[in-house]
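Minutes, project check-in
Item: structure for the 332-residue chain
Input as provided by the requester:
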Amino acid sequence: MNKTRAVITGVGAYLPEYRLTNEEISTMVNTSDEWIMQRIGIKERRILKGEGKATSYMGSEAVKNLLKKTNTPVDEVDMLICATITPDMPFPATANIIADKVGIHNAWSFDLNAACSGFIFALATATQFIESGRYKKVVVVAADMMSSITNYKDRTTCPLFGDAGTATLLEPTTEDIGVVDYINRVDGLGRHHLHVKAGGSLLPASYETIEKEKHFVYQEGQAVFKAAVCSMADVAVEIMDKYNLKSEDVNWLVPHQANLRIIDATARRMGIKKEQVLINIEKYGNTTAATIPLCLWDFEKKLHKGDNIILAAFGAGFTWGSVYLKWGYDTE
């Protein structure tokens, strides 16, 4: 009997309507479209606006899109995992709020915090539950409202981030498709280079933390860039080597969309041609946990059942990892 694998059977997404362009950012800080495009590769990013809207809004809209697209009744969902670093509130879990908003009441849910590696960490977690045989339909939400923690007076970080929500359905299969394997790692020393200083139990919110702007993303660009290039490329090559995959065996590399130079360096290290790399950073920027599934959703029609796909990500923590999967379906 073939081993049960977890296979992706659908991807949904939600993108806010508002487009924040490089030209608009250049009116906020001393930068330009040329500078941002040369160093990062982002042209515009989506920003969530509207009273009472937060990460759960984007996540729930993405789940609704997914369930409709896959004809999945809400009462058949066994579990919902939400990968996010911008929860609606410290508690309850944003996953619980999303489940309530979409009418999922026969499942359990929880949040997972792995920053930009959130989707592949959540995908690995969901895979375990599917492979156990106890769960048949698991939804992985990856959603972040990065605009809520971005300082639009900081020229080094404000061009980077956008808002988006995604939802991915995993189901069991005994076919030779689905998640084959994954390698995920962390190095807590990286916390010094990329974090939000205040708002947790270490430094609770106060007049002082707000006045000193400690509730925004803090990043030491060079240290993060160097670690991202090495770690993301190495772990992608590691999973290829584990399964004796040559560059020509890989149909698609789907990298985290943080910086075009990091993506290019990872592809070169893997020996992957540019045509084999899915990239949409120019349109959406870094949507943190949502970038990889947003690529899968954006390029869904290019993917074919059985395609060998490598996912690779790097994020705050530091967190990084790769997933080797065989795509589960053809899109009509």
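Outcome recorded: The CA atoms of residues 24 and 126 lie 39 Å apart.
No further action items on this chain.
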